Amino acid sequence: MAMKSALSRLSVVRSMESTRGATRYLSDGKGRILSEEERAAETIYIQKMERERMEKLKQKAEKEKAEKEKESADKIFRLVIEPDMGSKIAYSAEVSFDSGPRYVGHMRTKLHSVDSAMATAKPRLSSFSRNLAAVPAPQTPGLKCGPNGTTFVSSGIPDLDKILGGGFPLGSLVMVMEDAEAPHHMLLLRNFMSQGLVHNQPLLYASPSKDPRSFLGTLPSPTSSKDDKSRHSDSEQDKGLRIAWQYKKYMGEHHQNFDGNRSSGADDKQVFCNDFDLRKPLERHYFSGQRVDCVGIQDSTKLVALRDHCATFLAQFSRSDRTEGSSSCAGRIAIQSLCAPQCEHSNMEWDMLSFIKSLKGKLRSSNTVAVITFPPSLLSPSSSKRWQHMADTLLSVGAIPDEDKELARLLSGYQDMVGLLNVHKVARINTQVPVILEATTFSIKLHKRRFLTLECLNQAPVDGSSGSSYGTSGGCSGSSKTLDF
Amino acid sequence: MAETICRTLRDGGLEGEHAPALTIKDSVASPFGLDVFAYVLTQLSNYILAGKSQSRGLVIVAFSRSPSFYVNLLKERGIDVNSSHKWVRILDCYTDPFGWKELLNVKEVSQETSTLSSFCNDVRDLEKLYSSIIVQGKGLIGQGKGHFSVAIDLVSEMLRHASISSVGKLLSNLRSHDQVSSIFWLLHSDLHEVRVTTVLEYLSSMVASLEPINRTTIGRKGDSGNLSLLEQNFRKGKFHVRFKRRNGRVRVMCEELHVELSGINFTSVSSEDGIINQRLLPKVQFNLQLSEKEQTERAKVVLPFEHQGNGKPIQIYDGRRSLSENKNEETLVSTAKLQTDEDTGKGEIIYFRDSDDEMPDSDEDPDDDLDI
User: Which residues pair with B25 in a beta bridge?
Assistant: First the structure.
């Protein structure tokens, strides 16, 4: 774990070092009055721009470095302390040591001043900052490195990945609480399973039905990228900022096109998370062969058969071996309706609980994600609470009433909604810092009846004449109609 | 609305989908479950006879009434019984549930029902029950890809002899069987724990529950006002149905039912405030996203200094020209439009100078140096 994070941080720093050599610093320490240009250089806009450019360069360099890093034998960990925004002096300290037990530290300090010509002011980012711009692992498109040494796999739903901060972390247990009245958990499961198959990750699927393999016929297929363009533009409207700025005319070579969107990576052949078209079934070749294992859990008492299947499946992805190939392989387990009433074990609550506990323990030491869905209303309340506590990531789906006029007035987009998704818990592995989401309830919509999207619940525009608002957050709309001076 | 139920049962399920399942739930406060069951049964039989339904036959699993009851019921409702062996079979779990009479070699056979009914001797063995239901159904359909419907008289009786998980297994296997087009069953909800009722509701796609018109406490005695209300409960009731639709939404409907000699009548509810959906609605936010139209509008907005830095000569406004301000900020406001936006054009600001000594610069509109 620590090695991996050391590696990623290392490559970041290395690139910065290479560019640092190129800068010219007029170390002027005299404290002269800055001209307008130089003042402009210090404004936040410039530095933001610079930072963005630096990141782009960094990412490019990283990719190259990551290739080279594989060959290099010794691992050097460097740490650079960065200037903070307002000051003109920057300290940098470098500490390097080998991967062996020996600790060789040499400190080098340099002083730089930042009030230089604007073209050369390149503030660097602290390597302590939370590297939220995730670096894609070069070889495997299905995995993404996240903070704190975790690796994410996609859930199959782009919106859900965003909400959860990257996806499902490997080694975590995701539980989805079903609603007895709606089949939305199947949508989540389908996308999850399809995403795994598309990324060539082996899958174990268990279900209480008599013929689990027939469910594979309902898995959706990823759409072609042509259809994605219209949806990508939504997410990028806030990236392409147009800034009207008075000093822009001085910024000759920095006159950048702020509207330039980052390439969405749609030209990559394999993206981290695909959009799945729920109306198109997944091609058969994806689940032929040994990649998918289906288990029926109806008949096994005490879940013995399922436990054995899981154990053999998880043994393939053990994290303890450090070979190169193992990190590229991840597995997925999907268990549907674990406590469904038609299973014989459904009233053996302690057995089910011990199964989950043993599964979770094995998961932690393997590169797999498990998704378990269960209807909490069929368990006793204490048991249901225990199950919820076992989960690393806890979601729940809910049904919405049909043709409900009150809901239609309250929420915009009610017509397209098929259900609600609540995020109760988000997995945080290797850290104590919790995730606090802005919104925990999302509406499940089927965009064009094919794509699953999750949206925040938005209040419908209140009709001014009725003057009634529903007492939720927006109180200003509809209250006063004219402004009087 | 009861029509809706019957129509859903008639239409059956799509290919690859589980068959629609109806739970009729009653209690001692409103004990019309069997009447509703009979109503649904006759409606479905009519549809089957008329050929309008997906299923071509009906298998009745009789636990609480004898087969002759059903034959008489069908006769009363005007359905032709003579040809009934072509489309209905009754699995008799009423006469001899544990096989005692067979042990004692007592045989009771009545003429009419013998062709229709077959005995089930051990209701505790649900596997066997399942297979006999399927066998009966296939016997009705014959070879080929037909469908049949299943009606289970009283699931509460089944639950007396078997555990809920085995009953659940039976029901879900029936639902997922290819040739079963629809299934419905009756349940007395006050005979069971809450969990049992939840399990059965989980397994069904429609839940019809019967509730009394007037909720009165049954313990009071000698209260004449209450008696008349109680009496009403035995003639009328409320019929709530929750449909689980395919798209995942739940439709809730309500009707009143009246029991008469000839059967049961459903009327729509006269004055209804609407079922109070006490759902805890989560916090909603204002929509800060822009629709397509709004995005194109925003792209068209001319911002002040945008055109500078392009290499063209820069003209800075020096306060002499009048600018046609083009700032169209409305596209950036959330879609919950404030009424105040429309009023800004109407107000006027009238300003009198305090003294003539003021520098003329202070008169300038600070927005003047924006260069568009």
Answer: B187, B209
